[in-house]
Fold these 4 entries.
Entry 1:
Amino acid sequence: MAPEESWEVNGTSTTPSTAEKLLVHHKENHFTAGEVVRDVILGVSDGLTVPFALAAGLSGANAPSSLILTAGLAEVAAGAISMGLGGYLAAKSEADHYMRELKREQEEIVTVPDIEAAEIGEILAQYGLEPHEYSPVVNALRNNPQAWLDFMMKFELGLEKPDPKRALQSALTIALSYVVGGLVPLLPYVFIPIAQKAMLTSIGVTLAALLFFGYVKGQFTGNYPLSSAVQTAFIGALASVAAYAMAKLVQST
Amino acid sequence: MAPEESWEVNGTSTTPSTAEKLLVHHKENHFTAGEVVRDVILGVSDGLTVPFALAAGLSGANAPSSLILTAGLAEVAAGAISMGLGGYLAAKSEADHYMRELKREQEEIVTVPDIEAAEIGEILAQYGLEPHEYSPVVNALRNNPQAWLDFMMKFELGLEKPDPKRALQSALTIALSYVVGGLVPLLPYVFIPIAQKAMLTSIGVTLAALLFFGYVKGQFTGNYPLSSAVQTAFIGALASVAAYAMAKLVQST
């Protein structure tokens, strides 16, 4: 869900060399470990929230622990597949889409080079550049078809070259993380047969987990960690209140 | 979940004028209606999948329709809030992040202009451009701080200026769409008290809805609609099989 976000080091940047700065700032330098971490945070946050809320809601409807576990674990299984497989297929579609756009740009560069060259000009003109200022760039690109293609993919279409292995890795990471996240609020119901008691423990551990993950998420996305922690916990709390209220409402009809 | 995707007209492009082509291709020309549609597709697809799977799973565990409705509607309430509020807060954080990065770039342009100017060069050098080819661009940008700032935000950091109203609109759209999507598989359980019978109707209407929405999603994202329809329905089917199996498993312990 969270789109591309850049890295910060403790919320500020030092004054490094140009190369260092580019290394920190440049979005293209994806650290694979960082993307795995992001997927874990995404999956666990979602897994913590809805299974927790569902379990709390059913406790409110006086369901026994066994039923809460049935519903909760079924939801975790469904949610993990929906997120994991859904994410994988979406990433594959994106990769296919990228390849189709790449082919089209390649063709256009060969068949209608003047139009494509004019497009470079249009892109740079948006930054107040005059033709005499950008025409050296246009000419250089015209003589370097590979670079020209890369330039159009990035600056005209805004498309990044996807990594085929990442789609599968990302899907598996998110799905597994969702399962781990979902187990946190549900495990109390395994060990505590009286649902209302289990719910109290579930609330306790889940809120703690939400605060922790929200904090970590904030650090990695460059947002204020405390604020992120509170927001993450608040979403979980509100979702469970809504589930609780809905369950009570349906039970009363 | 689905990142930025570009528009196609019936899967191919005609050979239009340069301006038209830029209009169709350029990611910056977001049509607001298109973004609303995308949010609807996102919310409904998710809403169709997990509530459906949960209901099917609980039917498999021989739960009565009333309980399936309780769990299903509680999940829809929790899921809508998790997606809606979660999405809204994520968008707000992104907007805050953008403003912080904007301020930082602004400062850097003022305090360390030579480093920033060198960065423009580094970005363009990646496309095989020589200093004598890109220095007119660098000089022009140095004399136009606003354009320089825009250029760095887009080409160095890859950040788009977020629209503040969109965050709220997007969240509400996704949440409402999730509710609508979730109601489709659950309504049969309102009218058909015998869960196993209701489940058959639920499977029928939900599969039809998944195929339809998958098809529409394919058209809007520029992927093959039939393929998209089958994939969307497949995810729903697999998620419900997993939920069903999990529910049976938990019930048997």
Entry 2:
Amino acid sequence: MNVLVVGANGQIGKQLIDLLKESDHTPVAMVRKEEQANTFQQAGVEAVVADLEGSVEKIAKAADGCDAVLFTAGSGGHTGADKTLLVDLDGAVKTIEATKQAGIKRFIMVSAFQANNREYWNEKIRHYYVAKHYADKELLRSGLTYTILRPGGLTNDPGTGKVLIGENLSGRGKISRADVAKIVFSCLDNEKTFNRSFDVVEGEEAIENALERL
Amino acid sequence: MNVLVVGANGQIGKQLIDLLKESDHTPVAMVRKEEQANTFQQAGVEAVVADLEGSVEKIAKAADGCDAVLFTAGSGGHTGADKTLLVDLDGAVKTIEATKQAGIKRFIMVSAFQANNREYWNEKIRHYYVAKHYADKELLRSGLTYTILRPGGLTNDPGTGKVLIGENLSGRGKISRADVAKIVFSCLDNEKTFNRSFDVVEGEEAIENALERL
């Protein structure tokens, strides 16, 4: 499959590109700046430039020829809440619309732990959860073959490959970005994950086994 | 009808309360603070306290016994974009959910000019349009008998009672908050406005006539 990674320059995105490169799939890195695209191209990875604050048409053009879209982008913790609205919400929904426009069926969204459940939202970043919540809702209704991953607190620890997955996990937990990338990669053509949403944190079970039991 | 005005202490909300008071309807002012409720009660208006950042259940309780909900609330221009997400988007959607929970069918939303159309969004407050856009989308899908008003630039001019209404108005225009209140009031039991969305600016036609031609 040709796989568009949206947010390829991000911490999860970069690891996902590496996993795809080592596989039978072909990654296409979608990034915001020409210089980021050049860096990927120099490493032998196809790259396209498109801005989540730009038009749906431009994103659709970037997605042209791909068979799946992986959304790992985020406005990050250093920008204002206006960017949360423009990127994490509207940028995600534009990508969903662009995916449909490009005739692509498969879409994987990296969301946030319990983004579907207001009661769990952390006060300090509650607005971020609002953005993720409504982006996920749009994906649920999109008609695309979706998977929504809702990871716990993200760390830069090395991946363990062991997770705990559940449709409605209680409590709190964390997970490394490396393992989130591995899960997204594992979901790509795993039909058990089609049209499913789940919370995921670090745990005791191998990713493949945990996904099989979804 | 008993009519819940959400954002009753706002500039449109206050004028709407006055219009309802002078009519056969009974307004119920939903406000955030006890002292605001006291002010309404002293003026002979029923008032309930509920916070759009609080639970759906509390809003539903505030709506109990009402026959319609008018959403005129907004986080305003003096708060951050995080409040735009929490109030203008999630607060609006919570109110929609609460309306359904309370068994109420009628819902009128004060949205923003061309909120349904990204191409028109003003760069400076683009994030505000994102919030209104997704709140409106939730209302469209809610199953409620909705009306969505998308007014042009709001002014504090006295109302003229004359408007221009269209499902997809081009260009730019303004309208007084007084006239927005009058339109919301006129839509309340006007079946021509049921399940309709429209842009509205100052114009040449009497509100009632313009609504009849929707």
Entry 3:
Amino acid sequence: MSEREGLAATEEHTIGWLGTGRMGSAIVHRLLNAGRPVTVWNRTSAKTGPLAARGAQVADSIAGLAGCDVVYVMVSGPADLEQVVLGEGGLLAADAKPAILVDCSTVSEEASAGIRAAATAAEVAFLAAPVCGNPEVIADGQSSFIVSGPVKVFEQVRPDMEAVAKTVVHVGEQEQARLVKLAHNLYLGMMVQSLVEVVTLAEKAGTSREAFLEFFNGSALTSPWIQRRSPELAAGDLHLTFTNELLRKDFDLGLAAARKLEVPMPATSIVSQLVQSAIGNGLRDEDFLSLYELQARSAGLSGVQSARL
Amino acid sequence: MSEREGLAATEEHTIGWLGTGRMGSAIVHRLLNAGRPVTVWNRTSAKTGPLAARGAQVADSIAGLAGCDVVYVMVSGPADLEQVVLGEGGLLAADAKPAILVDCSTVSEEASAGIRAAATAAEVAFLAAPVCGNPEVIADGQSSFIVSGPVKVFEQVRPDMEAVAKTVVHVGEQEQARLVKLAHNLYLGMMVQSLVEVVTLAEKAGTSREAFLEFFNGSALTSPWIQRRSPELAAGDLHLTFTNELLRKDFDLGLAAARKLEVPMPATSIVSQLVQSAIGNGLRDEDFLSLYELQARSAGLSGVQSARL
Amino acid sequence: MSEREGLAATEEHTIGWLGTGRMGSAIVHRLLNAGRPVTVWNRTSAKTGPLAARGAQVADSIAGLAGCDVVYVMVSGPADLEQVVLGEGGLLAADAKPAILVDCSTVSEEASAGIRAAATAAEVAFLAAPVCGNPEVIADGQSSFIVSGPVKVFEQVRPDMEAVAKTVVHVGEQEQARLVKLAHNLYLGMMVQSLVEVVTLAEKAGTSREAFLEFFNGSALTSPWIQRRSPELAAGDLHLTFTNELLRKDFDLGLAAARKLEVPMPATSIVSQLVQSAIGNGLRDEDFLSLYELQARSAGLSGVQSARL
Amino acid sequence: MSEREGLAATEEHTIGWLGTGRMGSAIVHRLLNAGRPVTVWNRTSAKTGPLAARGAQVADSIAGLAGCDVVYVMVSGPADLEQVVLGEGGLLAADAKPAILVDCSTVSEEASAGIRAAATAAEVAFLAAPVCGNPEVIADGQSSFIVSGPVKVFEQVRPDMEAVAKTVVHVGEQEQARLVKLAHNLYLGMMVQSLVEVVTLAEKAGTSREAFLEFFNGSALTSPWIQRRSPELAAGDLHLTFTNELLRKDFDLGLAAARKLEVPMPATSIVSQLVQSAIGNGLRDEDFLSLYELQARSAGLSGVQSARL
């Protein structure tokens, strides 16, 4: 067999989890709740304590995960990913190797392709599988896995993912999962700008943000995200979830991908420039819902009365 | 008492309904289901038959509604509205007049203000109350009433509306309901453009529209509207619900209102130009989801394989 | 002869000029310099003094112009235009009527078409002929006449116009001259926004506005307008020539015309929204070169150090 | 003296010129016409023939230029630049070195900074000096030099440049000249889009492109570039000068620089997306004046009747 295709389909597999920060821990909790055996490792070992108390095995080193059939990795960026997979003492350096490596970190297509090539060379099947959702969303079972890689391999780990998340989708054979996550974030920025334009319009006509949002959230246009954050916007008291500077980074990556693929993005592009204007107007470190603030000021409104702004 | 404020709060009121097209009939059905007594009138009297069969009284003339405590009007535009309210044989021409007139038609702020002034002069309280939803949505109890006018009057009819719709919101004391409905439609256009940009991006990267939408519809960003229309977009088989030309009209009205209120609308504005480009590129009479078609062609994709396009 | 076509081609015609404000006076001066006989009338008669001193005849009333072969009108807007042409004691009310009426005011297509219809009914040939240039530009012979109406009539008055202006162009048989003037002003707004984006970019990279403009003004991209205003922009000392509010009015009219003609205007549209943002950010009554100020602030620069701003 | 500052001010310097393609040859011709002694070298030595015939010395190798006081380089991109300056047998590899190195190629800031660092380490003063203009413009003495680097060094070579070009501007001490050239090209793209929007608007109203451009070119808004290309646009017969794909490259570089400097570019950004749409709509290899074609089609016009399109 010239190509590694993961596990035999009927095999009951063992799971390793590398990286138990807030996101990783939330996912492992759901795996344990579903009765899956999980072995965990984390650079800062203290973070594995609560998981051990719930029944997880704790490995002493990354090599201690290598014997698992499937190893999931969730670290904070491409440098960490490369180190724990390719570096000295990393997953692919051990004699024993997992059959399948699943990366749940948020990294670029290029970094993802590099890890895939190395895994493939080591006869380890590789899936890119970024997650949408924050720890609370994961705990509620409302998160999503976006997966790309060989579809046969995907089918083998899909039951694990379905034990964790509401939505598990295979979006391609290569690195498409990375792009799909960026597309999600581009839409998020556009959704917020679209919302703040119509909120401001209604507000200046004399409709309170609260009344407008009550109407909007009862319509077929609203989204769970908007529903969740409407009380903050109505009250003018924005909590920090994701800064304008971080949103700009996703727009940079998403627009670069669009450029490479030769896809024009007219609305995305103008929202990107508005995020930049927000930064130039002093809102760099504010939550990106402060696009409302930029819009309100440009409409001659006073903006929100928040201590932060 | 110098100001007409509708009904005494405890009064059990009678309801007249003027205009029983598809939308009006759907609403009256729900009122009847809720056990409210309703007298109806329609220019084409045949349309009242199914309602009579369900227990509605049918008036012979508009004057036959004037004795009702509350009369709702739902006609197709400002000219019809003016005729049935202000014209010869119209509601305000009768000796008996309702205490409250509620207009559920979609008309401009200016037309609404004109009717309000005439009603007020005739000591009839007036509410502007456009409805969001199509007949199916209304039948399912998922529609919304957006209401503006005196809040005391609103409180008197609110129970009627709550028997019909999921969401009933008071958005101001004057004509704000008209603007809020336009704001809804501006957001709708922006939502669709935002969606087709990210769908096209994912598609060109090798992710099928179906897979992308499956992911998207599991995320916190999706909306009931997108969920409902995703199968069509995935299949590339768009059904006609609302043409680009009609969407352009709402953008014209919405941007004119924004201009009058001095609210910049950068994202709205660029979407408006894209709708115009769609029209110039031959998509005038297509469903406005054909913004996908314009975007796909501009991305060098073949667009959807629909017989219509 | 069923159609009035102005003058016999060989006729040496007499000229009447109605409206000797700053623009009108500047044009009449040039006509007088060219040796043309001109009779003038102005509502505020004092303004005709300097022209009388240069040799113009001064009429006591509008009727005193009606005997001229060609009467030019240059008043401040459509209401004045209608009054002096159609009103009591107006040009078309006199028994004697000019063969040709040329309106040099800035009015809408609709107002222009109304005057044309009335003139045609009175067997007076009509030309729309707005002028580009301010009084200084006119005095220097650098202005432009944009003319629309019957081409035979145009040919008869073209020598007058060529005595005044550098450029005299016939742009159509109906009201096209009005649109062409608007198109000029739309381009002006876009040119300024384009300029301030690149100026700000260079400035933030460490190139002074002065150095950038010196380069730019030596390139094939610059325009006489930019060359004239560069010293102000370099010095950050903007003089008031045309406010953002007035520019917005031209954008309103131009975009409305584009909408009616179904021409998408993506760049125009975004500049229009930026002008609105400038107004919302407190620059309503500033010269529209203050688009620089909006851009500079959004780029995190301090903007110009002007007492006005 | 710790810092190399070029030549003693009074010195009459010798000039080397590396790279005699069409642009380089046009510049050397002007230097020779001005009586300057120039030694040239070109990879394809045949191209130096016409210059030798006019009196230039021809070096056998790059090392043959190293003895000149000032060496100008004009090659086709960063790879060539690095090779002829830093590579084996390159300018900085020779024992003798010029006092001043002036790079007239079009390269990125990063490449420019790398060459500057190497030159400085070798005690050779360095100027970045891209040229605006094509060979015809250069021959007519209408080109521009945009120069950045130490101002004292600039003053030493300024007389050479003034013998060649109409405009010679010092825009900063580091790599600013590279950005200023990009800013020029961004403005060029915006100017063309602005023009085609108003041309199309007038055209759809019934004013021919020819008449509109005649008017426009007589106004204070036109530019030499527009004047030069108006006959082509009027005739609908566009010659290839610079493709949409090449313009897109400059927009990519310019917007990346703006992003790095945190300057929002709303109008630039939308034009960038329109260039991408033009490419997606089949205009990749057309002259970028074909932005007219995209705009005309989107306005429901037939576009230009050119065999190319």
Entry 4:
Amino acid sequence: MSNVPITVAHGDGIGPEIMEATLHILKEAGARIDIETIAIGEKVYLSGNAAGIAPESWESLRRTKVFLKAPITTPQGGGYSSLNVAVRKTLGLYANVRPCVSYHPFVSTKHPVMDVVIVRENEEDTYAGIEYRQTDQVEECLKLISRPGSEKIVRYAFEYAKKFGRKKVTCFIKDNIMKRTDGLFHRVFEQIAPEYPGIEADHWIVDIGSAKLADTPENFDVIVMPNLYGDVLSDVAAQIAGSVGLAGSSNIGENVAMFEAIHGSAPRRAGQNLANPSGLFLGSILMLVHINQPDIAERAHNAWLRTIEDGVHTYDMFKDGISKEKVGTREFAQAVVDRIGQKPETLKPVTYTANVVDADPKPIYSMPTPQKKELVGVDVFLDWWKGSFYGVANDLGPLVEAVNGDGLKLQTIANRGVKVYPGGFSDTFTVDHWRCRFVADLGEGTAVTHGQINSLLQRLATAGLDVIKTENLYNFDGVKSYSA
Amino acid sequence: MSNVPITVAHGDGIGPEIMEATLHILKEAGARIDIETIAIGEKVYLSGNAAGIAPESWESLRRTKVFLKAPITTPQGGGYSSLNVAVRKTLGLYANVRPCVSYHPFVSTKHPVMDVVIVRENEEDTYAGIEYRQTDQVEECLKLISRPGSEKIVRYAFEYAKKFGRKKVTCFIKDNIMKRTDGLFHRVFEQIAPEYPGIEADHWIVDIGSAKLADTPENFDVIVMPNLYGDVLSDVAAQIAGSVGLAGSSNIGENVAMFEAIHGSAPRRAGQNLANPSGLFLGSILMLVHINQPDIAERAHNAWLRTIEDGVHTYDMFKDGISKEKVGTREFAQAVVDRIGQKPETLKPVTYTANVVDADPKPIYSMPTPQKKELVGVDVFLDWWKGSFYGVANDLGPLVEAVNGDGLKLQTIANRGVKVYPGGFSDTFTVDHWRCRFVADLGEGTAVTHGQINSLLQRLATAGLDVIKTENLYNFDGVKSYSA
């Protein structure tokens, strides 16, 4: 079998030491890889590259499609953007995968039985960071959830479960409140789950689901989530497993995949042969499975488990009475190498299987079935304020109604999602951000035109009302597709 | 001292039993209250009231301004809206407060030392539920964070800490990603904190903060958060304290406040004298402090702690070896009544102090200082799709540029927050939701007019491009106030 080219970055701080240790184990375990080294991080930032990665390095990533990355240091001060965000966005790394495992009794944790994999959507949600200030008082961020984006991550979660022999995939959403956005994610989950009859599928509302995860993680297996929930809960899961220093993760795209430790570059520990290479090493195990070298992954991972269980621990894991030997980075790696061919006796050994070439692979997202989209109105948002937080909606109402015409009429005014006109309550607190809903004169659901909306905007401007944004209202296949 | 009128609802399922038990303890502890009873919940829903509360009941709430509420059952089937949401929105209950306490060793928990209060913003964030579908593939939800809304909740958290003798208030936000929305919440926190020099103030990014909370809750005291994070983490905190069945909460508005248990109506346990009244009882303790009867609150709460510590437990708390006596709802309440005047010996007794009338009370929100707002462009969102998820941005670019004119020009096109034109990458995955940013011909930051934007929208419509929404771009006091 020929070697697989991979791109490696040694990073900053403890990065070079833990990468050296990781590559030492991989080599001794027989990994069939050819390494292309690129420079990323602090030096690249300081040489004037705002994203911390040189243009030629992208070529290596696009060529090898596999990136093993050590932690980096982003320099203090403004103007430096996140390398991880740049890599993720540019290469479309849509899935963040983080296995969170307890190694009880060898690593201390309050949750001795825990083996959870968080599969987090990585590109959408409020984390796209699309934000606006349009009034004195209010800031807005857009939460976007797409069907193909949801299909990609849910599909990935089930394929991961299949490949890694997992029994259950759980979906966390808040679709009792966010019926459209989280509702879409949940519907996609329900559509894809039946294609995997051997894998149990269930879902939790994210609040109580998170509570269960934090209290009894042993009841979970693979959990798939939109970006924000996944960000929070992948940190929670790693921390309560006792394994922030021990966890690796992958960032998977359609073409390129990146593997790393979840911890940072810990500059204060650098250069002292102290750091624990386990996080990056476990990231590299995910990489070996990804490049279809399950035999090597299994051999290296089991040797690592045996090392943990033999009490050969770096300073961060070391605990009197449990640990047997406190070792440095290099000695830890050598201890793993010395155990290649052995398996753990107390901890459960791992097994990995080769990628099966699927004769009829499922598409990772579907072509959308276009629906009949009909424009039925517009929400026009106004910046308006009368110097009071109470009872002014009844002043605004008639001003807005005065621009009714040309087939459009004001239906309601809402403030922070609460209807305040007509018929609002005087004890509803209002801010300077007003949503005015216009629908057809003939009744909600009747089609209107872009031209009617543009004329309305013109009339609002003429009336001196300060339009700050619009949201068109649509029916899809005759069904109202906007919130009340 | 004259009695304080309060409104009481006995609710559904176990509601009537636990309310009876709670009121029995309050009465015997000497609470100076006059009760107005209202009907809410299942029967009211089924009688045709979609919000589960009759119009005349609002009058009682507005009159007494204090609402002690038992859990209710929302009937199955569509068309019934949440009573809690209706009460919260209508009466502006902006603060949700949930103390989460461990009662180790009397109630089992992995976190023996825990006494955390979650103060959650209750009206804003994505939970306003403002959602739109405007393309085949994408759903949108608006996240709104306001300055007065943030001021109210942060102010409340510090005032709560002062009143209840708390030492620290921690803020959880994700302002490294959501720089504007979460950034505003964080800035407000930093502005208000120094007004409370006796109270420590710190903040965490919500991901790692949540991990720390789930792992070592003993390091936290009061935590204040925007709505979504607060929803998730108040459930996490209650669960890991072992106290979901034991936790009460308050929902505080400028005028009205509501007190309740955090659990539901548990219809299957109803009518059997089984249910634990502690959650509602502890909610009523918050109420007694709120209506300035700290002496009664202290007496009743300490009697309850002594009951817990004496091992007199309802079925849900009962554990062999720890509990001494398994009792029903009524017997539990009587056990608390029998201990009025006693204090716990192992658990820490509570002390409450009277409300001090502040000679110079701080306003709960400030009048905004109007800034100079200047319109400098517009993001126009298009529904456009060419049947491919890759590489089509270069086809869209020229179509949009063709409508340049009248002083406005296309600057960039982005898709899910990633710039794709000009100069995008062919490996960026795109959906059918395109953000086209238009700025002044003379350069970004130069003022434009509403008229120019309206003409642009007209030209886009004429060109057959499907505008689905707009977001105006503003500078405030000369500072760019929208994301890249």
